[in-house]
Design a protein that fits this description.
This protein has 219 residues and is of the alpha+beta class. The protein has two domains: 7-72 and 209-214, no CATH class; 75-207, 2-Layer Sandwich (Pseudouridine synthase). The chain is built from six helices and 13 strands. The protein has helices at 19-34, 61-65, 67-71, 107-115, 138-143, 182-193, and strands at 7-13, 41-43, 52-59, 75-83, 85-87, 96-98, 119-123, 132-133, 136-137, 153-166, 169-176, 197-207, 210-211. The strands form three sheets. Strands 1, 2, 3, 4, 7, 10, 11, 12 and 13 form a nine-stranded mixed sheet that branches. A two-stranded antiparallel sheet has the order 5-6. Strands 8-9 form a two-stranded antiparallel ribbon. Strand 2 and strand 3 (52-59) form a beta hairpin. The longest helix is centred in the N-terminal third of the chain and has 16 residues, at 19-34.
Length: 219
């Protein structure tokens, strides 16, 4: 991968990598190729390790200064849900527990539930997240068995669409504002359906006008 300084790179983040892992790899490659030891590298919007998809990386001082412009843009995700169970992390990486394996919602019930999440709303960040409270990242506290009060954030769901459904797996496409935790949305959908749900797979396909189909691979 050829990396130029003071530019942006679209990366299709693989599963298991943190966003920091990607930044570190790009920084290392940029330093090797340019001969410059200290290069500022950042990204526009964190992706969870279990998630895949588009990560916009800024390389060099001028590029990293402009990353906030991408962070404010709309995001599009494709999420696969597992119904009937919940996870303490709201995703497949957590401890899974059964909730309601007897009821099997039909497509009409699911579409109605999804429609209810459209628009502006408040969302409480999950405990297993990188959000900081009093200087501590929430996931650090969660791993210590601590749960703290989290203030709800203002988010907006611009569009939410049912793509596929074969119980217990449900695939949705979500267009949302910055700051939206799709894992929390999935958990809330499960609660609304009365059966529970967690995020089995999550992929970010677009940030603003930039699509993952234009992104390069890493690793």
């Amino acid at each position: 991968m050829k990396i130029k300084l003071n530019t942006f790179i679209l990366i299709d983040k693989p599963k298991g990598w943190t966003s920091f892992d990607v930044v570190a790899k790009i920084r290392r490659l940029a330093s090797q190729q340019s001969g410059v030891k200290k290069i500022r590298v950042g990204h526009a919007g964190t992706l969870d390790p279990f998630a895949t998809g588009l990560l916009i990386v800024g390389v060099g001082r001028e590029a990293t200064k402009r990353l906030d412009g991408f962070k404010a843009q709309k995001k599009v995700y494709v999420a696969e849900l597992t119904l009937g169970q919940v996870s303490d992390t709201y995703d497949s990486a957590g401890v899974i527990s059964d909730v309601n394996l007897e009821e099997k919602p039909n497509k009409s019930q699911i579409k109605e539930a999804l429609y209810g999440f459209l628009g502006q709303q408040k969302q409480i960040p999950p405990m297993f997240s990188a959000k900081k409270i009093n200087g501590k990242r929430l996931y650090e506290l969660a791993r210590q068995g601590k749960e703290v009060e989290r203030k709800p954030s203002d988010i907006e769901i611009y569009n939410i669409k049912l793509k596929r459904y074969k119980y217990p797996r449900l695939v949705i496409k979500v267009e949302c504002s910055t700051g939206t935790y799709v894992r929390s949305l999935v958990n809330d959908i499960g609660q609304k359906l009365g059966v529970g749900a967690y995020c089995q797979e999550l992929r970010r396909t677009r940030i603003g006008k930039h699509g993952v189909w234009r992104a390069g691979k890493i690793g």
